[in-house]
């Protein structure tokens, strides 16, 4: 396991593994109940990459 994965896992307080299926939910005025299950394809220090989206993790510290 790389240091980069440890950083993001420590921030989220859960392990992130390539191949995991993750339920992603979003809220917007157009589609308040949107959700989708996507597969993790890559993890780096501040981003989790899914099949068709990237989630940026902002650390307020």
Which terms would index this structure?
61 residues; alpha+beta; 4 strands
Question: What is the number of beta strands?
Answer: 4
Low-confidence stretches: none
Taking the alpha carbons of the first and last residues, their distance comes to 24 Å
Largest sheet: 4 strands, antiparallel
Radius of gyration: 12 Å
Following the backbone from N to C, one meets helices and strands in this order, namely HEEEE
Residue share in helix: 10-25%
Instruction: Tell me the β content.
Output: 25-35%
Number of domains: 1
Structural class estimated from helices and strands:
alpha+beta
Helices, by number, come to 1
Largest sheet: spatial strand order: 1-2-3-4
How would you sum up this structure, described in words?
The protein has 61 residues and is of the alpha+beta class. 16% of the residues lie in helices and 34% in strands. It is built from one helix and four strands. It has one helix at 3-12, and strands at 21-25, 35-43, 47-50, 54-56. The chain has a four-stranded antiparallel sheet, covered by helices on one side. Strand 2 and strand 3 (47-50) form a beta hairpin. 3% of the residues are buried. The mean pLDDT is 76.
